[in-house]
Amino acid sequence: MTIDSARVSENERTLLARVPKGLFIAGEWRDAAGGATFGVEDPATGDLLAHVADASAADGATALEAARAAQPTWAATPPRERSDILDRAYHAVVERIEDFALVITLEMGKPLAESRGEVRYAADFLKWFSEQAVRIRGDYRVSPDGQSRLLTLRQPVGPSLLISPWNFPLAMITRKVAPALAAGCTAVLKPAEDTPLTCQLLAEVLSDAGLPPGVLSVLPTSDPAGLVGPMLADERLRKVSFTGSTAVGQNLLIGAAQNVLRTSMELGGNSAFLVFDDADLDAAVEGALLAKLRNGGESCVAANRILVQSGVADEFAERLADRISQVKVGRGTEPGTQLGPMINREQRDRVQLLVDDAVRGGATVVTGGSAPDSDGYFYEPTVITGVSASARITHEEVFGPVAPVYTFDHENEALRAANDTRFGLVSYAYTRDIGRALRVAEGLEAGMVGVNRGLVSNAAAPFGGVKQSGLGREGGFEGIDEYLSVKYVAIDKP
Q: What is the pTM of this model?
């Protein structure tokens, strides 16, 4: 397979020229303290898209001071005013869906249709938490001895550091920023170095929506550890929220411990996708395609291990391979593209290593299995069968368009295999038996379970995992609580 990707067009360059490239601190766009910049490339071609300001530890200290200074006023801002700002931002993002989608596709690679879907999903968090800002609740109780009254109220945690990943460069930001702002927290946002441009565009939208200076700063950087480390040690910071790998999350937790920061961690996954022999195979194949190839497989909720009951395993693998082999690979801006490039060369090469390791252990490549001839970072949509339980791909998150298919005989065996991982973000199960669906959903060690569906993400639902997949929840009614502290007030009996 050879892929000829178009270079950045004049219209695309015009849009990129309008996207801010500086640091956003105290309501202003500015250069980095040392004047440094770094490049952002198009993963479909390897071409340079833009240079953005490269934040340093000094910039982090400046942004954190701005957040500290703005915190009392922002916390005291009426909830309805915070709600209205988020609502205006929601409408602005929806109105600029084509701009946001194109920037996402250019710097991350996914097809435009998927980028548009991400923009709508991202906007939903702005809308959802604009509605939750006015619903922060407290409580009033009589003490058991009747001699006092027990009041509880929820107050903003305070200045928060939000660290977002590259795979959903808008949705993973609004999922953090919206509840933080709704709760009354100021924030410093560090976008992923591969995809900072989408975040810059969102900062512009929030500023235009009326967000006061200092409430949100945006610091792109090519040196995340150099920026984040000093901030974690700074007593002005009160919370850190991170989405990314478990290894990085563990380091952040160690850093957060020194000042006992509140933490939210949405970390790695190794999702099991269970197909039982009573399942609707047509639906299961389509669900597996969605759970595997959505976002090019570069998703923490992607189906990582597809476990199929032996009675239907061969037929399922054949159908899945047939569907995957028809997926059109290309630059995300090209009409009809269904699978774009991977984010960078390192990620593409890692996927190839996992496939090669599985094949050396006895696995068979049914379709795909290699990188096509291209200037970009593409990888063929792939199905492999006969994968060993000891293969690296069985235990490591693939984060690419590779579907390993395994077999099992009995329900308990499927549950044991699904739970045989240090991760626990999401699992999926396809069955027509409602009793089995309930048993399996309760037995799976995961923070989320999709039953007869390959997509669980929803702004109104609590997103998060167990075990080494993270701490806390984002989205849903629970999402805003991550940015609120409970205060208890004791009052003598009136």
A: 0.96
